[in-house]
């Protein structure tokens, strides 16, 4: 039984996330578990999630793999949360709203991408 779709293609925050994520070399979007995911071979971004240990859904958020050196500082910021399922693997979520700093989102996605992307894709990114 497939997962229900938990996003709308006309969601303005999803449109912005797509713009940022799909600009990275060799990135694809795949719907998995009812949500858009962004991949370069492996997944580096997931649109929407829920808080670990609760039923709180954050449909307008972005899950990403933070730099390990920044993880604790990010978690101290109320915009970030520990997501269900992926949080156990080091992922975090950031809430998206009208005050979102899209430069920060771009930097978070870039850092996440660099942790999973193959060397050839990172070389493409750096040659820009």
Structure description:
Helix content is 30%, strand content 27%. It is of the alpha+beta class and 128 residues long. It has one domain: Aspartate Aminotransferase, domain 1. The chain starts with 11 loop residues before the first helix and ends with a helix. 28% of the residues are buried.
Quickly describe the structure.
This protein is of the alpha+beta class and about 130 residues long. It has helices at about 10-20, 70-75, 100-115, 120-125, and strands spanning about 30, 35-40, 40-50, 55-65, 80, 90-95. The longest helix has 15 residues, at about 100-115.
SSE map:
Blueprint: H1 12-21, E1 28-32, E2 35-40, E3 42-50, E4 57-64, H2 71-75, E5 80-81, E6 92-95, H3 102-116, H4 119-126
Antiparallel strand pairs: 1-2, 2-3, 3-4, 4-6, 5-6
Keywords:
single chain, 128 residues, alpha+beta, Aspartate Aminotransferase, domain 1, six-stranded antiparallel β-sheet
Count of domains: 1
What is the second-level CATH architecture?
Alpha-Beta Complex
Give start-end ranges of low-pLDDT stretches. none
- Total strands: the figure is 6
In DSSP terms (H or I, runs of 4 or more residues), the helix count works out at 4
Structural class: alpha+beta
Beta percentage is 25-35%
Order of strands in the sheet with most strands: 1-2-3-4-6-5
CATH class: Alpha Beta
User: Under CATH, the topology is which?
Assistant: Aspartate Aminotransferase, domain 1
Mean pLDDT: 96
What fraction, in percent, of the residue positions are helical? 25-40%
Order of helices and strands: HEEEEHEEHH
Radius of gyration: 14 Å
Pfam family, one: YjbR
GO molecular function, one term: DNA binding
Protein name: MmcQ/YjbR family DNA-binding protein
Keywords: DNA-binding
């Amino acid at each position: 039984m497939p997962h229900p779709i938990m996003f709308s293609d006309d969601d303005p925050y999803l449109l912005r996330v797509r713009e940022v994520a799909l600009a990275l070399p060799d990135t694809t979007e795949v719907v998995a578990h009812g949500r858009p995911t962004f991949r370069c071979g492996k997944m580096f971004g997931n649109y929407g999630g829920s808080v670990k240990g609760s039923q709180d859904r954050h449909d307008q958020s972005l899950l990403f793999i933070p730099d390990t050196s920044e993880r604790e500082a990010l978690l101290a910021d109320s915009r970030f949360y520990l997501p269900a399922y992926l949080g156990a693997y080091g992922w975090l979520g950031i809430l998206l709203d009208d005050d979102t700093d899209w430069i920060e989102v771009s930097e978070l996605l870039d850092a996440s991408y660099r942790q999973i992307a193959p060397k050839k894709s990172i070389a493409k990114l750096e040659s820009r």
